[in-house]
Queue: 2 jobs
Job 1
Amino acid sequence: MMAVLSAAEATPRLQQEYRDGRLIPFLGAGFSKPLKLPDWSELMGWIAQRLDFEPELFYLHGRYEQLAEYFQLAGHDHFQQLVHEMTRRFDSEEAVNARRVSGMHQALASLDWRTLYTTNYDSHVEGALQDAGRKVAVLSSFEDFQTRREPGTTDVIKFHGTLAKPDTIVLTESSYYHRIALESPVDQRLRADLLSHSFLFVGYSFNDLNIRYIWYRMHQLRLQGQAGARRPSTRRCFIATFGPGPIQPDLLEQWNIDLIQLDPADKEASVADLLQRIR
């Protein structure tokens, strides 16, 4: 049944999933908006200047991941330069200070999560948890999953890699194509979590083809996992949005995703309020 829920309507369902230890946040770039990190447009402008392109013209020649791949092909150390620039901007002192007063990050860190997923490269999700005194394990590579973790540690799974390990970053077109096979260690963990958890997506746009593919594949993996089961799973996922419109609810219903309509007047406060309601 198609559902667009208010925050109040979604609260009891999210609370029950959280109490059962079955709710997992899946955070996108929008979650870092209060920190004023550079967006794709700014990063592509930085690349354009180094390739002697006018930024306005450079944007016309491909999607962001294609332009990032072109930059990588232009020189053996170009990708390392880009990662260094992203790290400098994303993990700046200003961004860290903004995180420490961000209502969204404080609300997230106030909850006792066992697992979080994020497609963000920066370190602010795990940083917010550490600011709150929580033990964190950042997982992005095979070696990370092999490392012993203390009881009570929150697993922060970096679905598109982390700047701390440049070889894990999913940024160029080729890396995205490799990634969507969903066969890496983080994908194997996702397969396991899908069997018994609901996900709360925050910070994603309906126009993001990468996350839409993830939603599609998650649904397919769940169907495969319950093949032959006497009682197929009715577990659903949720996405926080500021305006679903008339079309998206029907499209996401086929993937068992309910939309939670938040107040667009103050997006940061709306997300913080939703997370605080879970408690």
Note: The mean pLDDT is 92.
Job 2
Amino acid sequence: MDADLEVRARIPADVEAPDRIVFNLTARQAAILVVAAAAGYLMVRAFGALLPMPVLILLLTPVAGAAVTLALGRRDGLPLDVWVWAALRYRRAPRHLVAAAVQPPPVWAPDVDAAAGPGPGMLRLPADAISAGGAVDVGGGAVSLVAATTVNVGLRTGAEQAALVAGYGRWLNALTAPVQVVVSTRRVDLAAAADRLLDAAADLPEAALADCAAEHAEFLLDVAEARDPLWRTVTVVCTAPAGRGAAVEAVRRAEHTAAALAALGGRTRVLDGPAVAAVLTAAVDPFTPVDASWPRALPEQAVTGPVRATGTAVPR
């Protein structure tokens, strides 16, 4: 009976589709056609008495064709006007970004040929700050990260699969802001895990437990040398619009997402500031074995070393 149960959840697929205001056209498409029609009307008024009608139609046809193509065309899933605007911005954007502020050249320096392309610009990262609660300030709002595990749906019965799909659909329908689900696979740094295991083994009270920890650390080192282990991570990015209390709102939405996904049978956790810093650090270079399972210090936190006899910490 469960095998015949239909697994379906109603989820709107056009929640981000722009509204059609007139003749099944969006506001942007209608604006492009209206501007093109106004330009054509001005051309007719200006040259209608000077040029014969066939010549005038020949001049207006490329303008009309370009306007219709720009308004109705699509490329790579984007409206053509958006794609063209992005291409123009890319052509004018600097190709080289530097961390320091770019100073104008001195007066004695030779002029740079404009055909060589734009000069270097200042590197501006998407994230401006990370709070201790895990909210990331992205300038135009705030985001919070939720780490989640996967759920094996294929081993469930038909009724259980229907319940899981319905629960996932309820979470999607309850969203009031964009979210991003990132499923990534990265290399595991087993050598770092083995080193931390050996450090922890030195503090174990029982010698037998310390020997087991040392053997397990040796096993991890053997695996890291013989193979290239990978792990899969699922991260849900919850967003909040800019404004007062954006960080608190982002964390609240992340907690709601964690609770909704935990009801499906997976393990979820809202990442705090150090854990978010670890995830972002690992995402900067995905081809390097970086272990994101242990937290990093936040950018504004001071990292200190062991305390001397005088009672002061040694900065690292």
Note: The two ends are 65 Å apart (CA to CA).
